[in-house]
Structure formats: C-alpha cells, structure tokens
DNA sequence: ATAGCTTTTGTGGAAATCCACAAAAGCTCG
DNA sequence: CGAGCTTTTGTGGATTTCCACAAAAGCTAT
C-alpha cells in the first residue's frame, strides 16, 4: 500500500507528509537544485539546508562538493537512494538523497537528513516510493514552466535583434514574464564543437541555473551556440566576474558532462537595456576575431580585451576597397621574396612581443644582435621609424590585416 | 635712333642682332629662367651658358647662387642693367643682366657675357634699349601660352575630381595639351597663410618652373591652397624626393618672397593616372590630420608617414556612432578626476615616446620610478596589459580619437 | 672560383630598464 | 590632529638594451 496515494494540495504538504513518515527533515529540489518544497517540522537542520531554504537554491559551494564527491553523478545514473557522508566544510550533515525520474530524465531530488541512527531498509523503500509519487507533482510544475519558457525565448531574441526602441518597454516585458531586471548586463556566446543536443541542453540549463557567480536571467540555444544574458553583481569588476564565470562554465561542461566548448565570448557591460543588441554584436565580433586570430586571442573572451581587433572589420572593409596599401610593408615583402630573408616575419614577431628584443630573438631562434641588425635593415628598406608609435601601429595593423584577408 | 626698331622674324634673329651690336654672347630667358633665344655667334661662352642652352633652362644650382648673391632680387626690382661678378663654383663668368618689363611685371631677362673689357655707358644703354624692344616679342609668346593654360587648368581639375575613368583618355588629353606624361606621380597641396594673390601666383609659378628636383607637370591655385601634380624621377625613392622638394619649396617661398606656407602634404605615389583623385584625397587627409594633430604630425608631409592617422576619419565616424567606448580609459579618466592624478596624460605621453621610460619621465618632469609606479597603477586601474601590443594600440588610438573629437 | 656584397654571431662596455625596498611627502576622513 | 592610505623620490643591484666593431658565414654575379 502506497502511503502517498492520496491527493496533495501542494508540494509543501507532500514534503511534510514524507518528513512525518521518515521522522527527518525533507527538502525537494528541481533538477537544477532550486528549492521546490521543504518540510516544516521541527527537526535538527544542518547549515547547508538552512542556506538552501533561505536562498531558495542550493549554494554553489555545496553543489560543487557534491559533484566532487561523485554524489550527483550517482544520482543522475540510478533511481536508488544514495547515502551522502558528512561534508563538514560546506556544512552538510549526513544525508540520504534520491532522484525523481520521468522516463529517462531527472526532474528533481529529494533530500533527507539522516538523523542519529542509520536508516533501515524500510525507510529507504519509503523514500523510493516518495520519489515515485513526487514525479507527478513535479510534472505539473514543468508544464506551466514550459509555456512561459517559450514566450521568454521569443522575448530574448527580440532583445538580441534590437527590437525594442526604449528601455521602458523592455522592463515592462520583463515584469510581465517574471524575468528579473538587473542593473548591468552583457551578452555572451559559447561556441560548441557540435550541434547542441537535447541532452546537452539540459546540462547547460543545469549549469546556468546552479551557478551563483552571476545571474543568467535569459539564455537561448542556436545551432552550435549558446547565447546568454549575464548580469554581474558589480559594475567595476563586471568584466572580471564574467571572465571567471565563462572559464568555469567551459571547464565544468567538460569535466562534468564531457562536452567540449570551443570558445566563449562576451560583449561590453551596459546599463541600458536597449544596448543588448550592441553587446550581442560585440560578442559576435569577438568570436569572429578569435576565429581569424586564434593564437593571439586564445585567452581573450571580453570585447574590452579585443584591443585593436575591435575595429578590424571596419578597416578590412576599407582595405578591400583598395585603400591603405603600405609602401613600407610592400618593400619589405619584395625584399624578402628577392633575398630569401624574413624581414616581415621578424618585424611582426618583434611587435607581437611588444618590441622586446630578448623575447623576440628567442621566439625566432636568432641571436639578439641578428635581430638588431634586421631591425636596422627593416627601418632602412621600409623607410620606417621604429621608434614612432604611430608608424609602428600602422605597420602592425597592416600586417595583421594581411593575415585577416587570408581567412 | 633705336637700332632695334626693325621687324624681327624670330627671337633668335633679335638675339643675334643684340649680340652683334654688343660684341658678346646674348641669352634671353623668360621670367622662369627658361631659355627663349640665344645668339649663335662664335664668342667665348662660360659653362653656365652652355648648360643653359643644352637643357633649355638655367640650371637650378645657377639660379640658386644668383638668388644667394642678390642678383635676381635686384633684377626684379629695377629696370637697370645689373653687373654680375664671376661665380666660379657654378661656372658663371662675368655677366651683365637686365630684366624685360611690361607694366609692373617682369617678362624675362637678357644676359650678356662681359668679355675682356668692362662695358662702357654706351653699351649699357644699348642693352636697355634691347630690353625695351624685347618686350613686344615676349608678349606674343605670353598670349599664346595663356590660352593653353586655361584649358590645362580645367583638365587638371577633372583629374583631381576623378573625372576620367580610364588611363588612356588621360594620356590622350595630355598629348593634346602637350602635357608631359610621367611614369609616377603624386598630388600635393600647399596650405598658405592667406589667400593667394596674383603676385604670389607669379612667384609660385617661378619656383615651380625653375625647380629641377622633380617635374611639376600640372598645378593649380584654389583659395589658400596650391595643388600640384609632382612626378619624381624614381619610384623607390619617390617619397623622399617629394619630401625634399616640399621642404625646399616652402623655405624658398619664405626666404625669397617672404610668403609663409603653413604646411605641405602629398598623397601616395601611383603609376596609374586614374589614381590622381585618390592621391589628392590622401593629400587632403594629411592636411586634415595635421590640423587636428599639429604636434605629432609637424614633420609629416607624405600620406605614407601619416601612420595610424590614415584611418582616423573612419574610426572617428564609428566612434561618434557610439561604438568602442574604452572602459579602461574611462576608468583612468574617472580616477584622475577623483584623485587629481595624471594617469591619462602619463600613459599618453608614455606611448607618444614609444614606451621609453627615460624620455617620458623627462617630458613629464618626474622621476623614472614615479613613472614606473604610475604605469603599474594604470595597468591595475585600467585592467590593461601594457606589454600587449594590441591593447596598447587600442588605448593609444582611443586617446588620440578623444583629442580628435575636440577639434 | 673569387671578389664583393649581405647576413649572422660574437665581444665588451656604456646606458637604460627593471625590481625590491624604504623613506618622505601628500591627501582624506573620522 | 593623526592614522592610514596613495604618491613621489631615492638607492642599489641584477638584467637588458644599445652600440661599435669585427670575424665568420652565406649569396651572387662575373
């Protein structure tokens, strides 16, 4: 006989019933570790549970330790209860956890605190039955969510394409759709190795929902790309926060789910919501440039750190139009071709290494004096003053533009 | 009784007659020291005269010494004969010269070689009469020239505005107008302090016609600007030749005629005649940038050496559109405002001096260690890697663009 | 092949840079 | 005012750069 066969008004009522039967505190989470319901009886409660209830989500530190300990992978693999030993550094007491399944998908988890005595087989069976019964209750939530999700997706695309002329409209829409409005934001893109499958979509959703490094009020998936709206908590260090989040997202996708992300990119941080489209464009520019200049931009994600590559699209357009042919560079190329020398490579490397003689010589495998000699020749043949920033800049950009052409 | 009252078939005939009467070699030049006629009698001839006859113009070295010795200024001031002592380093023997006048304008010169004996008063009078008679003969030449000149002016403006789609048409027109076609060319502009008066026009014409540093097949005057088509003799060192010519033109205008030229500028050297319009635009860009950045571009005249300023128009357009606001720079500005520091000035000067610590410190009147400290702070506050060329370039350009805005 | 060029590598010394550390001066805020 | 911060200047030493000069190696054209 199933003790949960009765009708429950709410999930809270269900949680209380489970707690009553098992004589311990119960917490129910969705697949993304957001709090769905918890029992209210007066029992001992560990700090991790208290924090979860207060913030309506499991703290990220706790989630991370659970992954590290292998608990969550186990929960995602089987329908059996999992015993979790105390993890005192995150305030987690002894626990019993079980996943809630529908078909092959995990809808959520039930967490029980293991009080003084170890659980009996009977108690574990009871928990399994509870997990089965929770399924239907969770499904109802799910359906309500999905409908809303679709409308939110549409809204996000409108934002990305600059559909809203005034910020008021955006904020109004946010309120209607129950999307939290943050003071600062940026648009980011993750480029995946492959088309993003449904399973990966769930894993993305999981990571985005569980992270607490910054808020991700909106995201969408488009072929091989994941587009996110991120809201760092501070304006001044926003860039750095997003940067860190992007790196951890990429490593977590890899380590936890074995999903490779080729690269991430994000635009500037803005305050006005009409600038979402601009931030999105900037993120796209970063991706484009990273593809064209993989080596120098390997560690760049933010538009701010794109440096001079920010305006390469513009310059390249002009160059294709036949403008700025650089006589100095042409002379150097010609000299290289006629004398089998490497003057262009030399000056490019030299500038890549910020005019540092030692490093450049090392990179080119030549003696520093050889480098000095070549630089002298370069300034002669190209008629360039290598101690003039403006000329150096022009030459550097022209060389890089040449490479861009070939992409 | 005037011995030159008869009709002369040609200027040569006239020159011979003068030579006969004075018993010495006679050379007649126009106002720009081009050979118009010379006597053919067998007399002693100094090397300067020989060279003049062979090249159909007075060698530039000779003209320059005549200016230096004050001969030409004297000729341009009075109608009296001028005695010229030997200038052996340019092969010029003892001479008597006189200018040919119409109203207040000098049309040309008559040169006589003073043979063994000094001239008598009678001989000098004869020369004065010859100069008077030469006037009418020269005037006829002048009128024929002026008509052609107008059509050439129109042609040049068509070239500057890109009116001809194919080079063949250009070359055909050149042949029709008797304009020499050169293999390489560039368009240059001189910006004068004031509107160019008729008198200055003649002085310009004089300098352009007498120079032999490079060919100036076409030129025109437009308000405060003189626009020239220059044809350097070599392609490889074309830039340098034009550069030198521009400098000497400016100093000569100043020294000889007390006319101030604010600046000169010229575009790239091209081979195809349809690119005249482009070279002209480039020259205009140089002028524009020199106006906006007088200090760093004080010594720049050629478009090739504009360096990064070549594309500032383009970038500024984009910037005005609201793109690339540089968070690093904004942070630095804010810090400067709040703490009464000079970080922006510091980094700008540092980059102006090509990252040279000593020079920068000297320019800013601070201790090198102070500079080092400030640079550390700059990289912290702006979150900039100052050993990354691309970031430096971006920052430098953004700072200079900021200055461009205020122009 | 060899003379005459360019290019590479080496040596050594003066100058500049970088770095760590510390004293002093200046500014801000309770 | 004075504690605590930032900023400036100073000292000294390891490292790097710059420069001049020279030997050696490589290329090219006669």
TrEMBL record, chains A, B:
Key words of the record: Coiled coil, DNA-binding
Keyword check for DNA-binding: yes
One Pfam entry name: HTH_30
Highest taxon of source: Bacteria
Record's protein name: DNA-binding PucR family transcriptional regulator
Domain annotation CdaR GGDEF-like: ranges: 162-289
Protein's organism: Anoxybacillus tengchongensis
Domain PucR C-terminal helix-turn-helix: 343-400
InterPro entries: CdaR-like_regulators (IPR051448), CdaR_GGDEF (IPR041522), PucR_C-HTH_dom (IPR025736), PucR_C-HTH_sf (IPR042070)
Coiled-coil positions: 124-151
């Amino acid at each position: 006989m199933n003790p949960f066969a009765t009708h429950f008004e709410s999930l809270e009522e269900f949680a209380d019933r489970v707690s009553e039967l098992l004589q311990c505190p119960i917490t129910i989470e969705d697949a993304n570790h957001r709090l769905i319901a918890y029992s209210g009886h007066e029992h001992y409660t560990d700090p991790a549970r208290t924090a979860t209830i207060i913030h309506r989500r499991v703290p990220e530190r706790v989630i991370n330790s659970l992954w590290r300990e292998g608990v969550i992978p186990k929960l995602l693999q089987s329908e059996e209860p999992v015993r979790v030993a105390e993890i005192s550094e995150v305030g987690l007491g002894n626990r019993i956890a079980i996943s809630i399944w529908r078909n092959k998908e995990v809808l959520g988890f039930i967490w029980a605190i293991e009080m003084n005595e170890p659980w009996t087989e009977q108690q574990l069976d009871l928990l399994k039955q509870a997990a089965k019964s929770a399924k239907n209750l969770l499904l109802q939530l799910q359906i309500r969510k999905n409908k809303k999700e679709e409308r939110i997706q549409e809204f996000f695309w409108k934002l990305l394409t600059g559909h809203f002329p005034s910020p008021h409209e955006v904020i109004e829409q946010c309120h209607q759709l129950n999307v939290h409005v943050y003071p600062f934001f940026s648009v980011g893109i993750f480029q995946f190795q492959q088309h993003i499958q449904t399973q990966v979509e769930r894993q993305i959703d999981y990571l985005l929902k569980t992270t607490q490094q910054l808020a991700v009020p909106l995201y969408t998936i488009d072929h091989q790309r994941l587009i996110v709206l991120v809201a760092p908590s501070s304006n001044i260090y926003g860039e750095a926060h997003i940067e860190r989040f992007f790196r951890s997202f990429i490593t977590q996708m890899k380590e936890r789910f074995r999903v490779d992300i080729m690269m991430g990119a994000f635009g500037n941080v803005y305050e006005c919501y009409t600038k979402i489209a601009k931030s999105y464009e900037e993120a796209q520019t970063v991706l484009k440039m990273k593809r064209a200049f993989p080596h120098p931009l390997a560690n760049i994600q933010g538009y701010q750190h794109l440096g001079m590559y920010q305006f390469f699209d513009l310059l390249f357009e002009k160059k294709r139009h036949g403008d700025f042919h650089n006589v100095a560079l042409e002379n150097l190329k010609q000299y290289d071709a006629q004398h089998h020398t490497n003057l262009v490579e030399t000056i490019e490397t030299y500038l890549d290494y910020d005019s540092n003689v030692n490093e450049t010589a090392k990179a080119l495998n030549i003696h520093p004096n050889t480098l000095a000699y070549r630089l002298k020749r370069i300034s002669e043949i190209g008629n360039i003053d290598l101690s003039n920033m403006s000329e150096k800049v022009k030459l550097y950009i022209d060389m890089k533009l040449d490479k861009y052409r070939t992409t």
